[in-house]
Automatic annotation (TrEMBL):
Family of this protein: Belongs to the NipSnap family.
Organism: Pacificispira spongiicola
InterPro entries recorded: Dimeric_a/b-barrel, NIPSNAP, NipSnap_domain
PANTHER family associated with the record: NIPSNAP-RELATED, PROTEIN NIPSNAP
Official protein name in the record: NIPSNAP family protein
Domain NIPSNAP, residue spans: 5-101
């Protein structure tokens, strides 16, 4: 099992715009193709501001690649990206796996 941990830095003043676009156009498609996220979070007033963090679970890298290819082929995903990407400053992605002693 692997986890896709994503952190997006949103342009200051655009967080609510990004969240609206994502809720309406991105989240339904990701849930359809990727399943339910492990978590989806918004930064508060401590630490880095204007960030969203979301985590998705996959069986392995092949499972991730297959699901993300299906998502990318969805016409609505391109529409979402066209609306969302201009609201972002930076996107960071990392793949993590559970430590041997932790069973999620």
């Amino acid at each position: 099992m692997i986890f896709d941990h994503r952190t997006y830095d949103v342009i200051p003043g655009k967080l609510n715009d990004f969240l609206k676009v994502y809720e309406e156009k991105g989240f339904p498609l990701q849930r359809k193709y990727l399943g339910e996220p492990v978590g989806w979070y918004v930064s508060m007033d401590i630490g880095e501001l204007n960030q969203v963090v979301h985590i998705w679970k996959y069986d392995d890298l092949s499972d991730r690649a297959a699901k993300r290819a299906q998502l990318a082929a969805e016409p609505g995903w391109g529409e979402y990206l066209k609306a969302a990407l201009p609201l972002l400053q930076k996107m960071q992605n990392k793949i993590v796996s559970p430590a041997p002693f932790f069973k999620p």
